[in-house]
Amino acid sequence: MSSIYKRTFPFLVFFLLLGSQKIVSQALEEVGGPYTKDANTLLLLHFDDNLNNESDFSANGVLHKKGAAGTNQTGFFDNSDMSFLGKCLYLDNDSKSDSSYVTVADSTTLALKGDWTIEGWMNVFTFGDVAGDYRWVPRLCIKTGDVAFWQPNWWVELWGDNRWFQTGFHTADQANWPAVTSAPNVMEPGKWVHLTFIRDNTRKILIQMIHNTNRELIWFGSASYYPTFNGATIPNDTPITTHQAVHIGWAGAEGIPNSSVDSWLHGFVDEIRISNVIRNFPVPPIMTYLSPLPNVDASVVSYSVKATMFPFIQAGSITEAKLKYSIDKGVTWNEALMTKAVGDTFVGAIPKQVPGSIIQYYCTAKDNNGLVAQLPSSGNAPFSFGIYQPNSKMLDLEFEQGIFPILDEGVYNQQVVVHGNVGFSTDAKVGTYSLDFPLGQDTSYLSVDSPFLSTKDFAIDYWFKAAGDTILPYIRMIIRSASGNHVDQNYYIRTEELHGISARYMVDPTVTTRTKNNVDLVMPGGTLTPNKWFHVLYERDDTAAVFELRNENDQTISRLSDLKTAKNPPRPGSSPLRIGWAGNSWDTPPTNRNFMGKMDGIKLYNYAALNLPHNPYTAVENDNPENLPVKYQLFQNYPNPFNPETVIKFAIPKSDLVSLEVYDILGKKVRTLVSEFKSAGKYEIRWNGKNTNGANVTSGIYFYRLKTADYSQIMKMLLLR
Asked: Under a CB-based contact definition with an 8 Å cutoff, are residues 374 and 364 in contact?
């Protein structure tokens, strides 16, 4: 969670020096330097014509400069934007061959564990905005991981695709990487920013601050890294200890496996300091939680909102808390005071609104020193929810206009946004027209951004006809994401390998009654056929989740069900509904997985409107009943990443002695999953993330190898605990 404030300083406060648990009285320190070393300075580089380190606890910096003679301009330059800092270091990484960066040798003091403050100035000239670009995630500084660079002790970095900054650490058990991520587009090319990363290990919070050259705070964020829920096991929060050098301008680490290839910083750096205390900077109130409201039944008379907020200075106080809400898409904002309840919890209420209203909201907090915080932060979207009519049709797309715009005939008349080269076809199953996603396209899809499309109970009903000679796997025809990442779904329907199809919803991770992470209903390969119409029906309530597929004559082909839904409610969705594309932005042609073909009669309900039988039904039509494979194949595991188990599928065209083994990133065998003679056919094997001895393995990258007398193939998977 994150927040932002308006500052009024300098002033005097009582500041709690958390490292020693001693309260001292002193003036707040100004952000940005130039600094002088003290007993808590572990590293201090001024870059004034040298890489000398003022700290006695770590070594001087070492410059690594590659590239043709005379072409790499890395060196020291006057800092004209901030003359008070003297000179700065220019890292010339405008091409892959330059490879300029600085290292500070490994030391026990730089392997941070408790409280810390990491800071430095950064001015990025050019950056990558897609995965694979060598400047995609430029690092200001990082204590690189031993096994892989992305398992560091700590990091301070920029993500070029969203132009946001991220600061965080990796836990010793490799199960978590707590971080604070700024709002998008905070970074502006060619402009200096000062990044501050604070870890408060007493209160278990991380803080990120971003200042401009006038030392004005332009973004502030905080996050709790020690969550508990209804007595759940408290996770390990100890940072991983690494033995690599601190890297400045690149994530490293040269000469070890899994070195970074996409983290070069092209631009200026200056005044980098690492301290083993929480520096006494002016920090606004900390806000770690704002209750996300689900859609609300129209009969509810008011909508209660909770927030967790407290002053950063423990001797301080929250003097004002407000709940801001809008019912006209942010044009005007209303206020409601929040009152303190128990501990750091504040509560407020939004008054009753008419059915069909979409309410946006955020909260603010002011401390006794006039510092004001906002959650979600400036630059991030406010929370939102809708006032719905029970038992209603959320979305109804029949495409009968045959022209744009596409109209929603449901009760909420939501806006349907068309992306790419979508058209209409008279090859239809409902009325005269269907929607046509052209063959060979990789950019066409529909999106509907509305809170009404996220409900505890739901029903999905539509027709589709896939074009081409084959149907690619993992195409999300319908997906409602929980976070913008296609891995975190509210619900989806997608194609599977070998012309299969599946429906899934992700179980709400905050519900303690849950017995599984996902409710998956997967029909086998050979279920689908290109260039034929199929009718999809999928619904969920607290009695069952039922997924049914029908043929072009509306006769049932297969029906699957899960009867354990009462304890497994779905995860709320917040991102736009997408039709025809998953939204996995790192896919690039030719691997983009957009739907190609026709869809018709798309209807979504906020209740189990289809009244499907709960008993499974299997009578799959298949042009090749035996469906025997014609070649050896090893498929990508699913899900991936996974926790706690995943499914590995393979196919063999003839009887053979088969072995399927799992290896860790160092090449050590972890588990043998198959070692026996198999007949020709298709197989799927589950791996539960345990080694040969039955112990859970740690998070990380693993490899699985299928081997026969005539075939060997290795693929990669990621376990995230």
From this structure: yes
Q: What are the DSSP E strand ranges found in 136-281?
A: 139-143, 154-159, 164-169, 179-181, 193-200, 205-211, 217-224, 246-248, 266-275
26: nearest Cα among 370, 373, 198, 282? 282
CA 173 from centroid of its chain's CA atoms: 20
3-class secondary-structure state, position 109: helix
Backbone angles phi, psi at 418, to 5 degrees: -100, 130
Q: Sign of the CA dihedral 250, 255, 256, 261?
A: positive
In degrees rounded to 5, what are phi and psi of residue 347? -130, 150
Strands 669-678 and 656-664: antiparallel
Say what the pLDDT of residue 622 is.
Answer: 40
Phi, psi of 502 (to 5 degrees): -145, 160
**3-class SS of residue 199:** strand
- Under a CB-based contact definition with an 8 Å cutoff, are residues 181 and 164 in contact? yes
Helices vs strands, H then E, count in the chain: 0, 51
Q: Under a CB-based contact definition with an 8 Å cutoff, are residues 173 and 164 in contact?
A: no
Phi and psi (nearest 5°) for 5? Answer: -140, 165
User: Residue 307: which of 335, 272, 349, 270 has the closest Cα?
Assistant: 349
Q: Are 53 and 105 in contact (CB under 8 A)?
A: no
- Closest of 412, 58, 444, 491 to residue 245, by C-alpha: 58
Residue 304: both structure tokens together: 């209660």
221-257 burial string, b = 16+ CB within 10 Å, else e? bbbbbeeeeeeeeeeebebbebebbbbbbbbbbbeee
* Phi, psi values for residue 710, rounded to 5°: -115, 5
- Which conformational region is residue 263 in: left (phi greater than 0), alpha (psi within -120 to 50 degrees), or beta? alpha
pLDDT tens per residue, range 630-672? 788 999 988 888 888 898 999 888 878 889 999 988 888 999 9
463 forms beta bridges with 535, 600
**Which pLDDT score is estimated for 1?**
30
Give CA separation, 347 vs 224, 306, 338, 511, in Å. Answer: 19, 5, 5, 22
pLDDT at residue 443 in the model: 80
Note whether 604 and 448 are within 8 A (CB).
no
Q: Do strands 296-297 and 383-388 pair parallel, antiparallel, or not at all (unpaired)?
A: parallel
Averaged pLDDT in 10-residue chunks for the chain of 721 residues: 28 28 54 96 98 97 87 92 95 89 96 97 95 92 91 96 95 86 94 97 93 95 68 67 95 74 95 97 93 90 95 91 96 97 96 93 95 89 91 94 94 93 95 93 88 91 94 91 71 92 92 90 90 97 96 92 94 88 56 85 96 77 53 89 89 86 88 84 88 87 90 90 80
Question: Does the pTM of the predicted model rise above 0.90?
Answer: no
| Per-residue pLDDT, 20 | 32
Phi and psi at residue 677, in whole multiples of 5°? -80, 130
Provide the token pair at 620.
């799959």
Q: How far apart are CA 451 and CA 444, in angstroms?
A: 23
**Residue 391, CA distances (Å) to 56, 543, 572, 576, 610 in order:** 69, 16, 18, 21, 12
Query: Three-state DSSP class for 662?
Result: strand
Per-residue pLDDT at 619: 52
497 is written with which tokens? 């390998």
Residue with tokens 């950063």: 312
pLDDT at residue number 18: 31
